[in-house]
Amino acid sequence: MKEYKVALLKGDGIGPEIVDETVKVLNKAAEKCGFMIKYTQELIGGAAIDQTGSPLPQQTIDTCKSSDAVFLGAVGGYKWDTLPGDQRPEAGLLAIRSTLGLFANLRPAIIFSPLKAASPLKDSVIGDCLDIMVVRELTGGIYFGTRGRGMEDGAEYAYDTEKYSVTEIERIAKIGFEMAMKRSKKLCSVDKANVLESSRLWRETVINVAKNYPEVELRHLYVDNCSMQLVCNPSQFDVILTSNIFGDILSDEASIISGSIGMLPSASLSEQGFGLYEPIHGSAPDIAGRNQANPLASILSGAMMLRHSLSEPAAADMIETAVNRALLVARTADIAGDGLPSVGCREMGDVVCAEIDAM
Ligand code: NAD
Fold first, then answer.
1. Domain spans of the chain?
2. Distance (Å) from CA 263 to ligand 1 centroid
3. For domain 120-257, is the CATH number 3.40.50.10260?
4. Mean pLDDT by 10 residues, the chain (359 residues)
């Protein structure tokens, strides 16, 4: 029987609760589809600080590098909030992303039909369904550029620099085009080329990369227009390709359209296709340890891992279908409604497993 190795980083707050439910669901889908996943649990974030003094111990890095994929819950919590920036749990997260060279962030924003009413958008705006994939550059641009402060004419100033090389743009553009080829062959590249030089290089490079993908229909939007279009006509989008800062903002906007932060998965990929999978939400310390968290974002991240890193698309489809059906049976508190029973994190995991069992 095929066996995959997954590094499991549960992290802090609700991390352990949602990851436990994800493992339960992944194992159920694996059993149905005839493969096995061997998990190696390692420390990250606050839990790692408490036990080793570092938010990302070397042992965690080594296990991640020798695995087929990495699965992460969430990091952070009140207990570590007063530590200096580079010693906080979140530093472990940034460090694992850069150590593994995870430059491509995939964030699907999907409205599951049973949850249409949970979206802040009207039915007439959403249309039949919404399924957008934001492909965001994750290790370049203004978040990693030169920054500083100084004094000029007696007043303090500060600056940050947006810098992209052709190589950085090409590699994320390729991910965007490959994604479009697997979906509806439509790609929207988002920039601010009317003002920013870095965006003009972004646009020229994307146009060049497009020559290798003649089947993909490419269009360009300025980021301000894209942000407006996302809430007035979201169904026009399929794959959105954009830079680090624009992707950060647009993917949060796209995600809230789906109703709850507890529903949204993500994948971060390296040039070699190695992947780290995690829900987009944080460690939710306000509800941690109470069996109240919605495990579905984490479970859907598990489905992304099966599809992108473990090449088990049938098992991924099975989990996504099971989540859709589970939403008609029971809901966690953040998505409660439609007269359905309100259940806890563990019970929601059980409902998804039962739906897989029934397939
Ligand atoms: P958060 O995403 O943890 O929580 C925001 C709100 O959403 C809270 O009210 C929380 O209860 C709710 N929520 C989040 N996930 C939920 C789920 N699965 N089910 C139900 N409700 C859910 O963001 P925050 O409060 O800004 O940050 C809390 C901690 O998480 C901080 O330490 C922050 O640095 C960290 N954080 C970590 C990551 C990560 O690990 N990738 C991402 C964001 C924030």
1. 1-105+264-359, 120-257
2. 12
3. no
4. 97 98 98 98 98 97 98 97 90 91 93 83 82 93 91 97 98 96 96 98 98 98 97 94 95 82 93 94 96 97 96 97 96 91 97 97
